[in-house]
Specification:
FN3_dom
Amino acid sequence: MMDRPSDGRLALLLLLGHMITALEVPLDPKLLEGLPQPPTITHQSPKEYIVDPRENIVIHCEAKGKPHPSFSWTRNGTHFDIDKDPKVTMKPHSGTLVIDISGGEKADAYEAVYQCTAHNQLGSALSNRIIIRQSRSPLWSKEKFSPIVAQEGQSLVLHCRPPAGLPPPIVFWMDNNFQRLPQSRRVSQGLNGDLYFSNVLLEDSRSNYICYARFPHTQTIQQKQPIAVHVIDHKPVDERAPVFLVPSGSLSSQMVLRGEVLELECIADGLPTPAVSWTKLSGEIPGRRASLMNFNKTLRISDVSEADAGEYRCAAGNRLGSVHHTITVSVRAAPYWISAPRNLVLAPLETGVITCRARGHPKPHIRWSMNGLPIEDAPKDPSRKVEDDSIIFSEVQTGSSAVYQCNASNQHGYLLANAFVNVLAEPPRVLTAPNKVYQVIENRPALLECLFFGSPVPAVTWFKDSRSGMLEGDPYVFHKNGTLEIHVSQAVNGGKYTCVARNNLGISENHVYLEVKEPTRILRPPEYRVVQRNRDVLFECKVKHDPSLIPSTSWLKDGGELPDDDRFRAHLDSLTIRGVTESDAGTYTCVTNTSLDQDSASARLTVVGQPDAPTDLELTDPGARSVQLTWTPGHEHNSATKKFLIQYEDGLHQSGVWLNLTEVPGTKTTAHLKLSPYAHYSFRVLALNGVGYSRPSIPSRQYRTNPAAPDENPSEVKGHGTEHNNLVITWKPLTGLQANGPGLQYTVLWRQQGVEKDWTSVSVANVSKFVVSGTPTFVPYEVMVRAQNAYGPGPEPAAVIGHSGEDFPSAAPGMVAVVVLNSTLAEVHWEHVPARSVRGRLQGYKVHYRRERSLHRHNSHHGEQRSESFGPNRTRGKLPDLHPFSVYSLHVTAFNSRGEGPASATQRYETPEGVPGVPSFFRVSASDLDSLTLEWAPPHERNGRLTGYTLRYQTVNSSHDVGLLDEMDLLSNQSSVTLHNLHHSTRYKFYFSAKTQQGSGPALTEEAVTILHRAPAMRPAFGNVSSSVSEDGALISWEYWGPEKHLYVEYIIDNSDEDWHTEKVNGSQFHVLKGLKEGLSYKVRVVAGGREDERSRRRSEELLVTLPAMVSPQVDIATQGWFIGLMSAIALLILILLIVCFIKRNKGGKYPVKEKEDAHGDPEIQPMKEDDITFGEYSEEDRKPLRVSRTPSSGTVPRDGSEDSLVEYADSGDTQFNEDGSFIGQYSGRSGPPSPVINSLV
């Protein structure tokens, strides 16, 4: 670019642009505090400022600069001294004016053009010219309107003509009830507010057409006087072609400013009401910015551009013709910026440029000012040069800072912009925070900032990590503002970065860090779901993210939040919706966010359900045997209807039972139904979709068909016999619907085929069979069954051939012979029985055979009867699965459907020997270092005479490799064998089988291992294990002869499933177990050996130790007061009872002395009557042994207090009562039963 001297000025401008761009960075506020800066306007009121007369007027003007600027104002181009007007004040540290009109002053007194100037020692900045105007909402002029009379069909215009306001009012038509008047293609409001009727109708008559004007700034509404319209129909109005009411003529033009809204309007008169359409003759109407409004009468284009200029045609037409109008649209433009001037910071002797480029139509005029003065009136500066829309500065000097204004204007408006030139000499400063950490997602661009300031503009370089070399080239991009960009970040790009800013006044550097993170990805996105109503649905959203980032997952429905419903349960990686409804259908989006990135995935949920029941069933086109059915389908619930099922109910024959009639495709809603006579039909329809059937529709009205003769005869007509002399004729009866009428009967016809010419017939009803008796055995008959009802017979039936009943065969097969094929298979031969002896249809032959006995003396049991069936054409058959070496018997019979005939003569045959079955058992009974002893038993199924046994064996190692196979034969009478000279500690595998002359049978296998060495006989480790219980606990003692030094005592509660408790023994042969619970039994054992090695441990036999129940402390109760009182009471009670007993005894006589042995009789064999316990006169019965109280029904004597007799209470020895006769006896201890007298007392 610098190599082209012919374009030096352009190169200079580009270079200056590069220098300017380098300083376009946000400056640190702390930095700005120490730097001088010319004023900059930061906030101002709009150019057209309409104020509310009821509020104070506030005109904004805010600016910044260093030092802080001061403010002044001009009014209508001259200085405005605010100090002279007490109603006007300026806010502190601001240029904003506040005009107080609350005291009654009028706002229109302050209507003027205001401009604010902000200035400090470096220059002055200007605001826009602010035009202050008071908003106005004038009243409607008082006027009275005469009623408007219009002929029906004519056009009509009701004028609004609202008062001019500031800003203009919004117009609308209402009645006196504040209800908007209805509008349509026929009646509509124009852009000017008038109400247009393309043609009036009688219904348009009303007395309250009112136009309202709403003034938005003051929020007031003004009302026009009501207009009355009276529509008459005195004479008919002819239809007419359209004519435009607005605009007039066929051509018009309209100008619109760029960026504003273009509204074109065409309203037509006509009968019928015309339709309006729009076209652009010189191009196309912009689709996205254009809209048709007011029933196509208004074309509205927003944000107008120069391309919207051209000719627009509106057309209005009805059936009588059409009319056109062309509107030429021209687009003008107030000035707008192409490149607004920007602030310029230069170092002394630097070069720069300020550019002010604007467009408009007409082309704007550019005027420059400096600090508010026209540039031509400003102080001369040799470093400044004005060229049209640019000011070029070269080798600027300190002190030449200023604010320049660019004014671009044409007849439609103006633009004003401030741009300062600030001449500074500053060393570089890096403004980015030190040690800032940037985090970026892998494969995305990274932007590392190095915001700087300096004058002259510093040069920025970047280094990474060790600063071994300056960064340059791919993958790095260096921006003019100092930012380092890495287009595609990779893990290797992470680390420490250093930016260095240099100019001729110094150097500054800063360190930043870059961390490259793994991207967040949805690995398993939600999938499309089709779910039935009331079911649950699950959307998955499995996410992978960088471990150092914390993700958050949210779910959206149709782009918005999930419904506030407990049925929606969002988890970290899924969304569950329980019991879905149709309102849940939509698109669900899983959004996963981290602090650096996000990922999202969507899936649609379609909720399907059974279709709703069809409705509106209607019967049409009635016929004798048909009708047309139509219906309206119900809601399909997102699943297309596959078919409709039509059902019927016959109220005459099967009321309440619905049967399927026909099906039609889901695309049809009508069906032609074929019906039967003599039925009362009701129909209903069910719809079927992918989910299932709908509920049945409401039944149709009943449709009745007239009766008729049967259309068909019974089906499944058969003739067969159940006895040898009958014929049973059966059929499937007609249903009530098939009967076609009342009085259904069946005519049954039969005749013997080839013998009888005439038919025998009988009429029956309500049955499905008829029995013909006295027929010959098994002869063919022709059979027919014909239906008839009260309206006539059915069609002629077809004859069916049947046979009368069969009888048992009368002859047995002859020439029966048996050929034994092998030990398990024999073949039987026979001759056919004569055909006449079959007496029916021959089904075949049966061979009945059984095993009578085995030829072996050890097995002679009889087998079960077995049989094999063969076809009627067979004369031989094989009998499989026979037992070898056995005797069988058999006979052969012929059979038909009635049963078997007589048996042939019994034939016997023998089966030869076969191979034997497996031995009954085979096992290794003993093992030694080099020998193994084997035992076995003969097979249960010998299948012949055993000739011996075969033993084969071979070695097997741990990897299942086998050695050579050795074989030996053994005699049949042997049952064991010992194999010698085997390898020690070796596994052998044996195969053992029995054999007959036919060969060896199946073998049994077994494996065994010879032992490694002979273990010496082990002496028991423990002996004499015993226990004793004391107050200190349970003492366990033992003898031990083993080598182990560690001994333990283990114990557990008897019959419990808890673990054994262990206590270590300290070198003795006894141990006391403490803390055992009284009244419980414990199993105890002594253990020797380590607790870790279970195999080396030795245990003694288990010992059962029982601890007695806890005994209360002994107390001498004889000294206790309560015991003395109790004993005294008992003694007194006994004394009273004895006195009563003696008194009764004296009344009834005395007892004789009984023999000593009588007192010891067995009470178990001496039953007692109920009155035996009473005391009466002594009789001969009293000479019998004394009896105790009655034994309970259980046969046992209860052990209760009755046993504690006085005899038991006394010491051993003789006990006598006095000689009063009450009791005399001799007792020895407690060997005899107590006296009944004493039992009754105690």
